[in-house]
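User: Please predict the structure of the protein below. I'd like the answer in C-alpha cell form so I can feed it into my own downstream comparison script.

Assistant: Understood. Taking the following sequence of 59 residues as input:
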Amino acid sequence: SHIDRNTTAQGVNGNKFIFKDLIENLEKQNIDNTSKEEIIKQLFDNVNTQLRQHLKEYI
C-alpha cells in the first residue's frame, strides 16, 4: 500500500498553521520559557499522535 501524497501534503500544511498560531499566541502572553517549552512539547506529541493515526489509514 502507499501514502496519498496530496492528503499528506494537506496535513503538513495544516500542521504549519497550527504551529504558527501557537507561536503567535505564546508571543502575546507573558509566559516563562519553561512553560513555552512544555506547551510546544505537548503540541509535538499531539501532532505526532495524529500523524501516526493518519498514516495507518494508508499503510
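That's the full C-alpha cell string. The first helix runs from residue 5 to 28.
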